[in-house]
Amino acid sequence: MSGNSDPLTPRAKLAVTAGKAAAAVSRAAGRGSGSVIGGRVALKLDPDLLARLATHLDVILVSATNGKTTTTRLIAEALRAAGPVVSNALGANMPAGITSALAGGSDAKFAVIEVDEKYLAGVARDTDPKCIALLNLSRDQLDRAAETRMMAEHWREGLAGSKAVVVANADDPLVVWAASSSPNVMWVAAGQMWKDDAWSCPSCGGVMQRPGDDWFCGDCGFRRPTPTWALSGDHVLDPHGSAWPIHLQLPGRANKANAASSAAVAAVFGVPPQVALERMYQVQAVAGRYDVVQFMQRDLRLLLAKNPAGWLETFSLIDPPPTPVILSVNARGADGTDTSWLWDVDYTRLTGHPIFVLGDRKLDLAVRLEVANQSFQVCENLDQAVRLAPPGRIEVIANYTAFQDLRRRVGN
Length: 412
Hints:
Elements: H1 10-28, H2 35-45, H3 49-54, E1 58-63, H4 68-79, E2 85-87, H5 95-103, E3 110-114, H6 120-127, E4 131-134, H7 148-159, E5 165-169, H8 173-179, E6 185-189, E7 208-209, E8 216-217, E9 229-232, E10 235-237, E11 243-245, H9 253-268, H10 273-280, E12 292-295, E13 298-304, H11 308-315, E14 325-328, E15 355-358, H12 362-371, E16 376-378, H13 382-388, E17 394-398, H14 400-410
Parallel strand pairs: 1-3, 1-4, 2-3, 4-5, 5-6, 6-9, 13-17, 14-15, 14-17, 15-16
Antiparallel strand pairs: 7-8, 9-10, 10-11, 12-13
Helix pairs in contact: 1-2, 2-5, 4-9, 4-10, 6-7, 7-8, 9-10
């Protein structure tokens, strides 16, 4: 629907202008990008602004517990082969941040939007998306997020009858349950390393059978759908069975899975897999994630992991022992204040690595590492940890606000 006349009313234009002004003041005050406060001001002046801004765009929504920021970036790169793209690339993924992003995209054809899991149904209602990518659901922010089965139900109800093409991970039973209410689903075999949130059937509560990569419920017959796209080693298999090589600068199996889902989304808009995957190679880092930075004459690789599933994936891509590892955990509002999730992470995977612990909740993490029989040192700050770390590149793994703290410290 791109190419329409200007859809904005005078009130909407005023809201956009006021939002941009508020964002500029926030940036000038050193309070971040200003996208959230700008969006809040704009929506206060025109509560329907998000819907108005989306009317001339082909909207793609991306939601998941893990990987949505990276997948959003990969899809955006792929779709630039077909036209200009606007995206909330820095991860402001609630309605205010999304509104700010779209306000800057008047010339765009596509809007590739990361959406917080809790807001997906509402944002889909407002933006009338052409495509929705659903990657995974697992436990996260235990103090404020709904239990995963409830979140899947919320998605299922909110997306029922949606006109969008839903690109969904066939290997996550919760995602399959959520997507199954939609009439037009494209299933992707993207894999699922973390299975601890999907042992009971989301349909009937029965025990899920998981032979190999397959899964099904022996009680009600709910089962893994047949995928039309698949991640196979270092290739994406398209619906015709053709294998397309994945060449990414981003590390790990999880990012290959993100690329497979992104290629499926791009194909919905006519971008061939070869073109989409070639464009994804341009992405070196995503909002600081995977960046290698120099600090105190040492190389540090910055890795974000916010919940048990994310930590498990991250452990699989760090360099082998004796590579030093710095772990940093906070429990501020944006992280979730409940750190009991630390007990769900298998820290024995770090055996052999020199470990250094910091962050607001370093003592919570220290207790967990002690129980896992890991040797570690508790540090007051990043500088001390880097000074104590043995030679070689240092892997730095942090949850959300701890990651932002570290980025500020290293000037990234």
